[in-house]
Amino acid sequence: MNISCNPRDSLPPNLGQDVPVAGTSAFGFSKQVCLGCIYQIVTALLLLFAPTSVFAAERPNIITVFIDDMGWSDLSCYHGDRTQTENIDSLAAEGLRFTNFYVNSPICSPSRVALSTGQYPQRWRISSYLAKRSANIDRGMAQWLDLQAPMLARQLQKSGYATGHFGKWHMGGQRDVADAPLISEYGFDQSLTNFEGLGPRVLPLKDAYDGKPPKKHDLGSAKLGHGPIRWEDRSVVTAAFVKEALQFLDQAQADGKPFFLNLWPDDVHSPFFPPKVLRDKTDESKKALYYAVLVAMDEQLGRLFDRIRNDAALRDNSLILVMSDNGHEEGAGTAAPLRGAKTWLYEGGVRSPLIVWGPGLLADDAAGSVNESSVLSAIDVNRSLYAITKTAPPADIEFDGEDLAATLLGSQQQSRKAPIFWRRPPDRPGTKQQDNPDLAVLRGVWKYYVNYDGSDRQLYNLSADVSETRNVIDQHKAEADQLHKQVMQWNAALPVDAGDPKWSKSE
Q: Model-level pTM?
């Protein structure tokens, strides 16, 4: 059992965030040290001797749904008009919807690291998707997320939560990287993933319904070992994740334990293979297949949502958060009226839906409301969940996320105080028609872009120009200069990426 005497690390998250440390000596001790130690000692004793049912009643269940490659305006509750996502819409109707929520990377692996750790993923040398060992080296990246990273799941597990991860992982154990840690080593009691992680896996079969046998699509995962493997039709992989998640939920409830559940579908990532019943034989376009997969995924997620909604004990003590890991794949979904898509630092690549549902946890007037003022990001969600679950964060960790628990639960409409920073994936320089800026920073209504060498400076006022069509840097040079200094300092403090010479700008 580790007892920290760091005053900020040992206090509950909502007490240690903004409380000044008075009376600090030359050796770093303060009057608050004793309070912090007492808090952790009492917490440890409660965990050791109190019945688990006590914690199930007082500490909420957390479900994070991190959808893959879904555009900001694809959901019908976000004004998507291509199809109806009825189950997610029902959560939004009963919960709280955010319009200014951001993920911390426009591509999968680093976005997942940020949500999992509460830190910018560049701290851990993960700035693009993890791939083959040689490709990771070429781009100056780690092979997997370091086990020293501050995983929310690990802290929740230590504090008495049942923890499960079901769905895409993509933080190590893909392609030819067979020596990555298992998902269980990051603090999960149970897991089921796809070909982007190690441990129990469900691998997809692609059936084009052309009379030919389905094709295996595992990107080398089946050869890696490290866990039982089963093959399922690509159209029902999300169903397999949901089924496993429901079994995990049932067991946690039977054990009287609160649970933390990641349900991270591989949908709606390409290739798109919807169930045959949802395919339109008259339209086999990429966009049509994408939206058919979106509907199928929504139907499967509805099984989990209904299980929680229809059980009073779960309904009143569970929090569901629905997000996307980055923007849509170009030619598939949409982020209209936002500019950009997956891999781009523009709004369409990093602004994500966020729906928070929890009838017994949200403020009384939050149900069915929309928060259009608060600006927050995935690293803030991570930091806030420590407070919501009454879990002490790991000691001596510098989080980039801020505690916005009151905002997530609808009792306040605060924004994060610090700017949000981004660095583009090193292998995504843009196209021959349009460069992808190297760096971006958002502060208030201002979003600023610049390359590493200081070129191609852009400034947009998102309150007046959410589509980022009017570069107003000449009219607001002082604001741009401040943001330039901040983003350059942020970038200089992080490990450097190495551009992969094999990557070039696409058409």
A: 0.87
